[in-house]
Structure formats: C-alpha cells, structure tokens
Amino acid sequence: MTGAQTRNNPSRVLSDGCGAMAHVKTMATRMGIDHAYTLPHQQSLNEAEKVADQMWAAARAHVIHTQAPNAVFFLAVDYSLYVDARTATTDTRNWLTPYEMITGSHPSIAKLGRFYTKAFVTVPKLKRQVLANKGVLNVRGEDGRFAGFHDPFPSTYAALLEGNWRVQSRNVTLDDATNSV
C-alpha cells in the first residue's frame, strides 16, 4: 500500500501477468486506480501464493529435520496445513485462527506432535486374532511414524507403518520422550 492508500480507497492494484488476471488491469483502469504487475516469482506480494510458499517451506523443514523419505513430503504439506489452520492468527482477523473462522469453535492442539516422530499404533482386535492364528502372539502395537491427522477428525491420528502403509487410528502413542527421530 502506498502512503495515500487505505483499505477502502486503494490507489494501486497489483496483479501478476498471467492472462487470467487481464480483467483486473481493465477494471482498475476504468475505475481510475493505478495498476501494476508484480515481479515474477515474488510470492510475498500475493497473499495466497505466500501461504502456499510458507506451507511448502514448513513441509521441507519437517522432512529435512526428521530425515523422512521424500515419498512422505505430501504428508508433511498436509500436516503443515493442519497445524497452520489451528494456530495461525493475526490482528486483521481479530486473532481468530482459520479453523475458528470456518467452524466457529476453538481448535484443540493438545494432540499435536512432531511430524514423523516414532509412534506406536494399537493393533486392532481382528488383526490380533489373525496374527494369533498364524502363531504370532502378544502383538499389541506396531511401530510406525506420526504422519498427521485424519482430518477433519482431530482425535484420529494418521501413522505410517512398515512399508509406508498409512493407517488412521485413535489409539496411537507418540514417543515424545526424546528429540531423536
């Protein structure tokens, strides 16, 4: 925004140079508002692109920090979006998170954990019976990695088991005892 510009009286409108935004320049000119194109690859000038860029950066940080395989990058993006929707807030939104704005209720972040941390998933009773019939006894939990939540249900974890098998379960214990991954 320029010095004389306010939210109700813009003096300049920015848009990118793609063909889909041609109407922005036309309408701004008709209304007597200055129009300018944003520089290419400058997401910081476009709020929607900035959010996408931030979520991809957060996902990259999760994958790099945890040394997770690149194959789970999409889960890291999903987790970053999940956390952002429940924690991001600004004064321009009256300190409401996106989750609150959509649902009208306060989000719970009590079950958040570090992405790709060690996790233990309780084996369902039916699977325990199948394993017992095969001679594998006393299997109560499977080792895995925390991979987010089965949105929109914040109490249902998503975990990766051996072979990158993704499961959803309410019975997951995260190994937050150490910072190791």
Tell me what you see in this structure.
The chain is of the alpha+beta class. The protein is built from five helices and seven strands, in the order E-H-E-H-H-H-E-H-E-E-E-E. The protein has a five-stranded antiparallel β-sheet. It has a two-stranded parallel ribbon with strand order 1-2. Strand 4 (about 140-150) and strand 5 (about 155-160) form a beta hairpin. The model is unreliable at about 1-5 (pLDDT under 50).
Topology summary:
Layout: E1 12-15, H1 22-30, E2 34-37, H2 47-66, H3 73-87, H4 98-103, E3 118-122, H5 125-133, E4 141-149, E5 157-161, E6 165-169, E7 172-174
Parallel strand pairs: 1-2
Antiparallel strand pairs: 3-4, 3-7, 4-5, 5-6
Helix pairs in contact: 2-3
Task: Label this structure with key terms.
181 residues, alpha+beta, 5-stranded antiparallel sheet, two-stranded parallel sheet, 5 helices, 7 strands, disordered N terminus
